[in-house]
Structures are given as C-alpha cells and as structure tokens.
UniProtKB/TrEMBL annotation:
Record field: transmembrane: none
MF GO annotations: DNA binding
Annotated HTH deoR-type domain residues: 3-58
Transcription listed as a keyword: yes
SUPFAM superfamilies xrefs: NagB/RpiA/CoA transferase-like, Winged helix' DNA-binding domain
InterPro entries registered for this protein in UniProt: ArsR-like_HTH, Carb_Metab_HTH_regulators, DeoR-like_C, DeoR_HTH, NagB/RpiA_transferase-like, Tscrpt_reg_HTH_DeoR_CS, Tscrpt_reg_HTH_GntR, WH-like_DNA-bd_sf
Record's protein name: DeoR/GlpR family DNA-binding transcription regulator
Keywords recorded for this protein, A-Z: DNA-binding, Transcription, Transcription regulation
Keyword Cytoplasm among record annotations: no
Length: 254
C-alpha cells in the first residue's frame, strides 16, 4: 500500500473513532507497527495529527459550509471588497477554501482575471463569468465543506504560480501563527502559499485568536492581512516584526 493511501486511511480512522493505538492501526491496515509509527511521525510533522502515548489523535471541528456561510456575512463582505481592490485586471488569483474566499469571489465578477481554486463554491460562483479564466484544482472532494484536498490538489499547485493568494484561517495566535481546525486542508494551504507571489490572509475579528490545532504557517509567510477591526496589540506586534501589512476595512493599521 502506498504511503499516501495509508496516511488517508489513518486520518479517516482517527476522525471516525477518536484516538487510536498503533497496534489497532497496524492490524486495520495490514502493515507493521514500525511502519505505522513512521507514518504518525510524518503526519504529525505535517500538522495533521497529534501523537499520544501508544497512538495518535486528530481534532476535527468543522461545521458544514452552508452553516458557516451564514455567519458574519457583513464583516466578510467588507474584507472581500478591500481584498478585491488589491488585484489588478490581468492578474492571477489563487483562492483558498472557506466562506470569506467565496465572498471575495463574488466581488470579482466582471473583472479580467485568472482565478485558481480548490473551493467548489468559488467555482460555481464564477463558472458563468466569461471574463474570468477559471482553473479548478483536482483532488478528493470534501462534500461537507465543498473543497478539494489530497495529493492531487497539492501536485496541481506545484505546477502553478499566482500573483495573489487569498488565504483563509480558523484562527490567528498572538504570535502571528495561522491555524486551522481542518487537518486535511493544511497541506493544501501550505502548497498554496508556495504557489503565491503575494500571500494575503483574510481574517475577520472573530479569528483573533479563533481556534485550530494545526499550524498552517507563521507570520513570516504572509505579506498582508485584511480584517474588519483593529488587531490586538500582541498580534499586531508580531505582524509588524515580520513586515506584514495589516489592512483594516479601508485603512492600513501597520
């Protein structure tokens, strides 16, 4: 069995049944405990699980996309409008999963752009806009959150480069670390960061600190943050030290 397939099955087992022992995973997958331990080390390095004594655990805290889409719409629209103003016609834009990226896509109608995404709702929003060259990344479908993930998505991203990446998050720590609750999305987000020339984090005030157990990146990987309220002092200092511009709904904070 290929390592990628083992990793998917390990994560699926952990999400379905909570913490799992190395011996149990070894029996389920038909491989040695030593192989499982190596897999767990790799998955922990990728931020996809946490090893515990004798096994591992993942934290999966997503709400369905339709539910999240109805939350803080006014704030997300303010962020989306400001983010859209950063982009010039003729440029390429990479849009992350999530509802704020979807609100940004709604602001791009009528523009002459290339939009690259693994967000199925973004694809549906822009599919009939003939002025936009639309690139849908391949991968495994996460139906509940309307996104594409996995090694196919990551491999697609390695072949691409975008002028802008607009990145979503579950939370931002005071040290500026960008976090996510959805561990299977983290490798895709990291691949997006590598593919983006300018990396802009979209985060409404509820994301400071928000939540999330898996680290996506540090502040040094960001060029700007667009939010709807002034950022707390500790996080602002972390961004400032890393040279990150903070844009607050129409004005620059840092």
């Amino acid at each position: 069995m290929l390592a990628e397939r083992r990793h998917q099955l390990i994560l699926r087992a952990l999400r379905a049944g909570g913490p799992a022992a190395v011996t149990d995973l070894s029996e389920q997958l038909g491989v040695s405990p030593a192989t499982i331990r190596r897999d767990l080390v790799k998955l922990e390095e990728d931020g996809l699980l946490t090893r515990v004594h004798g096994g591992a655990v993942v934290e999966e805290g997503d709400q369905p996309f339709a539910e999240v889409a109805e939350m803080r719409v006014t704030e997300k629209d303010a962020i989306a409008e400001r983010a859209a103003a950063m982009v010039r016609d003729g440029q390429s834009v990479l849009l992350d999963i999530g509802t704020t990226a979807y609100r940004l896509a709604r602001q791009l109608h009528g523009r002459r752009l290339t939009v690259i995404t693994s967000n199925l709702v973004v694809y549906e929003e822009l599919a009939d806009d003939e002025g936009i060259e639309l690139v849908l990344l391949g991968g495994m479908v996460r139906r509940e959150y309307r996104s594409l993930v996995g090694f196919l998505t990551e491999d697609n991203l390695r072949q691409l480069h975008a002028d802008w990446l607009f990145l979503g998050t579950s939370g931002v720590r005071p040290g500026g670390q960008v976090m996510d609750t959805t561990v299977v999305e983290v490798p895709v987000k990291r691949a997006m960061i590598k593919a983006g020339e300018k990396v802009v984090l979209l985060a409404d005030a509820a994301k400071f600190p928000g939540n999330g157990m898996a680290k996506v990146c540090g502040p040094e990987d960001l060029d700007a943050v667009v939010t709807n309220e002034p950022v707390d002092a500790a996080t602002r200092a972390s961004f400032q030290e890393a040279g990150v511009e903070v844009v607050v709904a129409g004005k620059v904070q840092v």
